[in-house]
From TrEMBL:
It is an enzyme of class 5 (isomerase). This is UDP-arabinopyranose mutase. GO terms for biological process: cell wall organization; plant-type cell wall organization or biogenesis; UDP-L-arabinose metabolic process. One of its GO terms (molecular function) is UDP-arabinopyranose mutase activity. Probable UDP-L-arabinose mutase involved in the biosynthesis of cell wall non-cellulosic polysaccharides. The gene is ParM-14. GO terms for cellular component: cytosol; Golgi apparatus; plant-type cell wall. Belongs to the RGP family. The record marks R148, R155 as: Required for activity.
Length: 356
């Protein structure tokens, strides 16, 4: 395998939720080994998770989450990959790349291995254009530019907060689509990155995702899912809807497209249907709620935006199901826990940098 470019090795953490040994990292070694890994172990904390030699990592299980967050640990999902957002909270780096343990290195049409992390970093380090669509997609890529008719006043773009990658082989389908298309595989490698326009929501998948933790981290809460909750598999969707409303309000960008990973394993559609069942109905009211959500001008931080959004969730979605009261409270608990572990103001840098 060709030698990889390693950008931002001191400024980026890789967050991986898992219930099994991380043998998949061997394939990723040329690309990910120089980076620090934060592994969030889901399920039984007494189970030993093995990590291949040579990786720099810290591993947290449920006992660690309870110890570090105390009563606030209730906001972190159990028996669901949503537990990964605990890794976002304890990271002290500017950037996060999160990947699932069934995601392998993809190949581009020429057969070359795709360095997904490098592409995410390129996306995050270049501006976004949410206010006016460029028909050549990302104008900051080599060989592209702004097309005729694109306003010069908007060509500087805005900071990119989120880079959303895609998948070859097993697409990210919901259970009903999985059931009617059990053999469908994605073989189309589209060499494109585009900014999702302002005012447009999108279904965010958490298995191949990069984001600027400083810009949007406190809103990357994957909700209350899994054990003890009436819903699962909407964790990344919930975070995606929240971050998009907040990015639009704060003038930040979200990109989607490259990079691709190879998604190796389809989850069980019958199990998924049980997890998604209520969400399939609820999303018909949740999505209009987010489409109509307006944040006040005095919400100038991600935390303020998120707490305001939690109030609107409580006010407008609790009629859908009492679960949304619980979720709204968990959103506030999440922000309190985030701020406790990530203090700001005089002396905060020292507190932030302390070893646990």
């Amino acid at each position: 395998m060709a030698s990889a470019t390693h950008l931002l090795t001191d400024e980026l953490d890789i967050v991986i939720p898992t219930i099994r040994n991380l043998d998949f990292l061997e394939m990723w070694r040329p690309f990910l080994q120089p980076y620090h890994l934060i592994i969030v172990q889901d399920g039984d904390p007494s189970k030993t998770i093995k990590v291949p030699d040579g990786f720099d990592y810290e591993l947290y299980n449920r006992n660690d989450i309870n110890r570090i967050l105390g009563p606030r640990s209730s906001c972190i999902s159990f028996k669901d990959s949503a537990c990964r957002c605990f890794g976002y909270m304890v990271s002290k780096k500017k950037y996060i790349f999160t990947i699932d343990d069934d995601c392998f290195v993809a190949q581009d049409p020429a057969g070359k291995p795709v360095n997904a992390l490098e592409q995410h970093i390129k996306n995050l380090l270049s501006p976004s254009t949410p206010f006016f669509f460029n028909t050549l997609y990302d104008p900051y890529r080599d060989g592209a530019d702004f097309v005729r008719g694109y306003p010069f006043s908007l060509r500087e773009g805005v900071p990119t907060a989120v880079s959303h990658g895609l998948w070859l082989n097993i697409p990210d389908y919901d259970a009903p689509t999985q059931l009617v298309k059990p053999l469908e595989r994605n073989t189309r490698f589209v060499d494109a990155v585009l900014t999702i326009p302002k005012g447009t929501l999108f279904p965010m998948c958490g298995m191949n995702l990069g984001f600027d933790r400083d810009l949007i981290g406190p809103a990357m809460y994957f909700g209350l899912m899994g054990d003890g909750q009436p819903i699962g598999r909407y964790d990344d969707m919930w975070a995606g809807w929240c971050i998009k409303v907040i990015c639009d309000h704060l003038g930040l960008g979200v990109k989607t497209g490259l990079p691709y990973i190879y998604h190796s394993k389809a989850s069980n559609p019958f199990v998924n249907l049980r997890k998604e069942y209520k969400g399939i109905f609820w999303q018909e009211e949740i999505i209009p709620f987010f489409q109509a959500a307006v944040l006040p001008k005095d919400c100038t931080t991600v935390q303020a935006c998120y707490v305001e959004l939690s109030k609107q969730v409580k006010e407008k979605l609790s009629k859908v199901d009492p679960y949304f009261d619980k979720l709204a409270e968990a959103m506030v608990t999440w922000i309190e826990a985030w701020d406790e572990l990530n203090p700001t103001g005089p002396g905060a840098k020292l507190a932030n940098g302390k070893a646990k």
